[in-house]
Write a structure and sequence with these properties.
Order of helices and strands: HEHHEE
CATH architecture: 3-Layer(aba) Sandwich
Largest sheet: 3 strands, mixed
CATH topology: Trna Endonuclease, Chain: A, domain 1
Number of strands: 3
Strand content: 15-25%
Distance between the termini: 16 Å
Structural class: alpha+beta
Shape: globular
Helix content: 40-55%
Strand order of the largest sheet: 1-2-3
């Protein structure tokens, strides 16, 4: 998360119109970000997620 915040800070200065997403696999999303603590993190820092399926190599869900 620290690296994500650094990228987001720099990107907001250099290209403020561009949005940054954190890509996580579906299992990580289900195990971490669907839990209460994960939801708190998403809401508190306004985290944008792209959830992908490793097995099929496709995007499953976007969370903005």
């Amino acid at each position: 998360m620290g690296q994500y915040e650094i990228y987001r800070s720099v990107l907001s200065e250099l290209e403020p119109e561009r949005l940054l997403y954190l890509a996580v696999n579906q299992q990580a999303y289900e195990n971490i970000f669907q839990e209460k603590l994960g939801q708190l993190i998403i809401n508190k820092i306004q985290l944008r997620l792209m959830i992908f399926d490793e097995k099929f190599g496709r995007i499953v869900k976007w969370i903005t």
